[in-house]
Design a protein that fits this description.
Helix content is about 20%, strand content about 25%. With about 400 residues, it is α+β, with helices and mostly antiparallel strands. A hairpin with a 2-residue loop joins strand 10 and strand 11.
């Protein structure tokens, strides 16, 4: 393998045990990098305050930084084992205004004069010349593979524990489950389009579930009183205020604030809305509110999302706000091998596995044989035993042998 072609090292350095320079550091966590620019055609970088919020069932993070004049920002150290919603907000840096905030206080940002560009770190150019070419399998090989897959699926259907429990009559209403799931996906998509932070833990009111689409209510306060749980509406000389019960805001006399399509609005603006023109309400309180809106969200936040404008082709811009659905990373699963030494359903289920044993940390002894044991399956065929590793002094080795699994002679 090393007798032809160009190399990225020379043998003199290898023999002299000279360490090779590490250009790209090992990734130990998930990071986000980007650039803040003016929201115009030139896209000139600008010094900005950038806020990053992560909130889901397992993770909560709220952090911020101030970029240099180049507008570059870099957040690192995140552990996201599953799909996670990320909210990034930016604002033009104003030292005087920022200096008025208390330590640890973070008001909602997202300035209409800035936009984001995410950067892909350590991106390598694709070199097609060193890439393995795909080759088509023969029709016969594809047919054999399809037959094996279908046989394994049939066996799993019959012997899988989830399908082997005797139940009384059960009524399955798949339509309701599908509808609920579709609504959740559509809602999450709507929030992303409007530049809003989606949370599974907020209370949502869909106007399509309300009689006459909300036309029976004269104002938004009547709608909230009838549809939102654990609230209290108080009348003041300046108007009406809403308090979310179960929060410290009741004792602190801190009312909830209104958010209209991503912008914080006054009570007067919210009161002027016609309920029939509203698509849904999203009520956040506690951590779900303060992590995104800072001290403004102490009393909770009532987000109002209006129906789409008549021009459905018009894209709703959300300058200064960027939402990301990060897939996280995949947690490796342990290699499955049935244990036929114990009484279980595995003993009854036909075993058509094509890979019988796999061990990535197997240690062997050069002075004596190292035993390995595994169960064969019901598939009568030849199996390849493939071993590769490295000695303590760094010498690689590889070996292979074949065995045949045959049926009983009886």
């Amino acid at each position: 393998m090393l007798t032809q072609g160009w190399r990225r090292f020379n043998w003199q350095d290898v023999l002299a045990a000279k360490p090779m320079p590490i250009i790209y550091p090992t990734e130990e966590n998930i990071s986000f990098a980007g650039k803040v620019m003016k929201d115009n055609k030139q896209g000139i970088p600008i010094k900005a305050d950038v806020f990053l919020n992560i909130l889901n069932g397992q993770n909560f993070t709220s952090t911020n930084l101030t970029t240099d004049e180049d507008g570059l920002f870099y957040f690192k150290g995140f552990d996201l084992p599953d799909s996670t919603e990320i909210l990034i907000q930016g604002n033009v840096h104003k030292p005087k205004k920022k200096g008025k905030l208390s330590k640890g206080e973070a008001k909602r940002t997202g300035n209409k004069n800035v936009k984001f560009e995410l950067l892909n770190l350590h991106e390598l150019a694709f070199n097609e010349s060193v890439t393995l070419k795909d080759f088509p399998y023969s029709r016969k090989a594809q047919a054999v593979f399809a037959t094996e897959v279908n046989r394994i699926r049939k066996v799993d259907t019959i012997y899988h524990p989830e399908w082997s429990i005797n139940l009384d009559a059960v009524t399955v209403k798949a339509q309701k489950i599908d509808k609920k799931k579709k609504r959740a996906i559509a809602t999450e998509k709507l929030f992303k389009e409007r530049g809003l932070f989606y949370s599974d833990f907020s209370q949502k009111v869909y106007m399509e579930d309300v009689t006459a689409g909300g036309a029976i209510y004269t104002n938004i306060y009547d709608l909230i009183r009838d549809r939102v749980t654990n609230i209290q509406i108080r009348t003041t000389p300046l108007g009406r205020e809403i308090y979310l019960r179960g929060e410290s805001s009741i004792s602190n006399s801190t009312p909830a604030i209104f958010e209209l399509n991503g912008a914080i609005v006054s009570d007067i603006t919210a009161a002027s809305l016609v309920p029939s023109e509203i698509a849904m309400l999203d009520v956040k309180k506690g951590l779900a509110a303060t992590s995104i809106y800072g001290i403004q969200g102490v009393g909770g936040v009532i987000t109002i999302i209006t129906k789409e404008p008549k021009d459905h082709n018009r894209k709703i811009r959300t300058p200064g706000i960027l939402t990301i659905k990060h897939p996280g990373y995949h947690q490796a699963r342990t290699f499955y091998a049935p244990n036929y030494a114990t009484d279980s359903m595995d003993q009854e289920k036909p075993d058509y596995r094509t890979t019988l044993y796999w061990n990535s940390t197997a240690g062997i002894d050069a002075k004596q044989a190292t035993p390995f044991s595994f169960y064969t399956g019901d598939k009568l065929s030849e199996f390849l035993i493939f071993v590769e590793g490295m000695t303590k002094d760094g010498q690689p080795f590889v070996g292979q042998k074949t065995i045949r699994v045959a049926g009983n002679s009886n």
